[in-house]
Amino acid sequence: MKKSLGTLLIIALVCFSCAKKQEPIVVTSEDYHSSVDKVTEVMIHDIFSPPVASRIYAYPNIAAYEILALKGDGYKSLQGQVTDLSPIPQPENAAHINYDLAALIAHIDMNKRLIFSEDRIEAYRDSLYQKWEEQNSAEFEASKAFGLKVADHIAAWMDKDNYKQTRTMPKFTVDSEDPSRWQPTPPSYMDGIEPHWNKIRPFVIDSANQFRPAPPPPFSMDKDSDFYKEVVEVYDISNEITAKGDESEEIAIAKFWDCNPYVSVTRGHLMFATKKITPGAHWIGITKIAAKKTNSDFSKTVYAYTKTSIAIADAFISCWDEKYRSSLIRPETLINEHIDDSWEPVLQTPPFPEYTSGHSVASGAAAMALTSVFGDNFAFDDDTEVPYGLPVRSFKSFKAAADEAAISRMYGGIHYRAAVEIGVNQGRSLGQFVVDNLDMN
Known about the structure:
Elements: H1 2-21, H2 29-46, H3 50-71, H4 99-114, H5 118-135, H6 137-158, H7 163-166, H8 226-243, H9 249-256, E1 264-267, E2 270-273, H10 279-293, H11 298-326, H12 331-338, H13 358-374, E3 380-382, E4 393-395, H14 398-411, H15 417-437
Antiparallel strand pairs: 1-2, 3-4
Helix pairs in contact: 2-4, 2-10, 2-11, 3-4, 3-6, 3-10, 3-11, 4-5, 4-6, 5-6, 9-14, 10-11, 10-13, 11-13, 11-15, 13-14, 13-15, 14-15
C-alpha cells in the first residue's frame, strides 16, 4: 500500500511539473525596459561615442517592432518607410509563437551583435532563456527560432549601412593654419570622433544634408564681429554662473545634461575616464519614464522606443554632417588663446567640432518623436541621471526638456549660442519629418 501511494505521489509530481512547463510565457513592458537598460549599461562600460550609441539603440528596437507589426495589434511595418528595409521572414509555425517573446529575444540578440562586451549580454540572455525554457519549452523554442531569424534579417540589412566601411576611413585632419578650424581640446586632446558619420545610411531622412542648417556666424576675432561676441558671451556666462558657486541653477542644468562618455579625470600623473551615458541614452531613459508613467503595454513601449531611437539616429547623422563641414573651433580653444589662458569650461569639451550642438539636435528630434507618441504638454520627472549622483529634474513637456538640454551646452561652456539655438531647431525640423513620414499605427 505504501509503495502504491509513493508511486502515485511521484506520478502526481511529474504531472504537476509537466503542467507547469505548459504555462504561457508572459512578457511585459518591464521586461523590455530591462533589456534596454542592459544594453545601456554595457554601452557605458564599453564607452561608445554618441553617434555610434544612437545606431546601437535603433536596430534592436526595429527588430522587435517589426515582429510586433506582424502580430497585428494595429502597428504597421516599417518596410517601405525606412531606407532599404525589406519584409521580415514569415513565421513557419505561427500558432506556437509568442510574438512578444520573439520580439524581446530579437532585441536581446541584436544588442549582443552591436556591443563589445558580448559576455555581459549573454549572461543576461541565458538567465532569461533558462526561465522561459522552464515555463514552456515548446513556446520558448518556437518563439526563439523566429526571433533569431528576424534578428538575422535585420542584421543583414544593418550590415549594409556603411558603418563597417567608415571604420577604415582616414582620421580627421587638423589644420593649424586655419584659425577657425576645430582643434583637439584638453585634457586628453583626442582626435575628432566619427568624421565620416554622414556616410552612414539614414533611416527616414533622405540624406545626411537634408536638414543642413544655416552656417554659423562668419569666423572673426574682430571685437565688433557677431562671432567674437558669441565667444565673449560664453566666457561671460561661465564667469557669472561659476561666481554663484556649485549651487547655481545654471551649473545644475549643465551637469544634468552633460552626457559626455569621454570625460577624463587627472589625478597626479594618472588620467582615467569617468563613464557616463550619451545624449541619446538620456532620451532613451526619458522614453522609459514616459512609457512607465502611462502604463504603456508591451507593444506601445516597443513602438515608443523604436520611433524615438530612429529620430535620434537620424539626428546624429544630420548633425555630424554639419560638424565636419563647418569644422568650427570650440570656445575653450579661442578663450584660452585670446581672452583668458586659465579659463576652463564648466563641462569638459567633447572631442569633435562645435557646430551644431549634438545634444541640441538629438534632443529636438527626440522631443518631437516622444510628443507624437505621448502628447504635447506631457509633464514628467526625469530621474535618468540619478545613478550618476544628480538629482531629479521636472519638465512640463518634452519640448521644454529639449530647450533646457540645448541651453545647457552654453552654461557648460562648450557651445556658442548659434550652435544651440539653430541646433535644437534643426533637430525639431528633422524630428517632425520623421514623425510625418513614419506611418506606424
